[in-house]
Specification:
Pfam families: Rhomboid
Shape: flat
Order of helices and strands: HHHHHHHHH
Protein name: Rhomboid domain-containing protein
Number of helices: 9
Oligomer: single chain
Largest sheet: none
Number of strands: 0
Keywords: Membrane, Transmembrane, Transmembrane helix
GO cellular component, one term: membrane
InterPro entries: Peptidase_S54_rhomboid_dom, Rhomboid-like_sf, Rhomboid_IM_Serine_Proteases
């Protein structure tokens, strides 16, 4: 037992996942305080091979998470603003509840017919349909986003986060489906979420890399780069042609 109250294997110098979490936490809240030699992050990382040791060395919370907390703050402020505005319009159907309250008239909301207003491709991430939607998103961002940012820093996480937001271009596929196949228009948020997941996943593989890359990982990364480039170019080309021809009909927003 050491002074922190849990056992350390001095012979093999290995730690459990729980101990590893405490190492990261202790060194992040007190960076100037020297930990015992057996609990040093760099010493423990040196006992790990490959990407595990490299990841532990990166996970130093310096600087602490900045991007994700700012996004959460912006989402909360925007939500509060249109909640107050909806409560003053004398229309009870516009009031924000647990599962309703989407400000369709907002200049932040994405509309296919207003795709020339390019900021809407990103600012729609600040819009939430009801406070349950907001709470779930915030919990996910805190539990996953902040941990990723502590290791990969704000600029990498920012690229993945904002790049995933551009996944709203997936509505181009939805437009084709609605125009040629479906009799009942779908909600654009379905395509937006699927597109965001695909774009975010591909960007994560490309951007969130640590340590020396093995050959198979290099092949996978370049494959993701090619696939991402093809998807983005196809979607942008379609949206450009669609917007000029006036062929795309308005799509019902969720």
């Amino acid at each position: 037992m050491n002074q922190f109250g849990f056992p350390v294997n001095y012979s093999k110098f290995k730690v459990t996942p729980h101990q590893l979490t405490q190492i990261v936490y202790l060194t992040s809240i007190s960076p100037r305080k020297e930990l015992p030699e057996d609990m040093s992050r760099s010493r423990v990382a040196d006992t790990w091979d490959g990407s595990e040791g490299a990841y532990l060395k990166l996970h130093n919370c310096r600087p602490p998470p900045i991007f994700i907390p700012l996004i959460i703050l912006a989402e909360t402020v925007v939500f509060m603003c249109y909640t107050v505005a909806a409560s003053k319009d004398n229309n009870p159907y516009n009031d924000v509840t647990a599962f309703s309250g989407n400000p369709n008239s907002s200049s932040l909301t994405y509309y296919p017919e207003k795709r020339h207003e390019v900021w809407r491709f990103v600012t729609y991430i600040l819009i939430h349909k009801g406070y349950f939607h907001l709470i779930v998103n915030v919990l996910g961002q805190v539990s996953l986003g902040c941990l990723l940012e502590a290791a990969h820093k704000y600029w990498r996480v920012g690229i993945v986060f904002l790049g995933g937001a551009i996944g709203i271009i997936g509505d181009g596929i939805l437009i084709i489906y609605d125009k040629l196949i479906s009799e009942n228009p779908l909600h654009i948020s379905v395509a937006g979420h699927i597109g965001g997941f695909v774009i975010g996943f591909l960007l994560g593989v490309i951007v969130l890399q640590t340590g020396k890359m093995e050959r198979w990982l290099k092949i996978l990364t370049w494959g993701c780069v090619v696939l991402l480039t093809i998807l983005v170019l196809m979607s942008v080309t379609f949206l450009s042609i669609c917007g000029r021809s006036g062929w795309c009909p308005p799509i019902k927003l969720d």
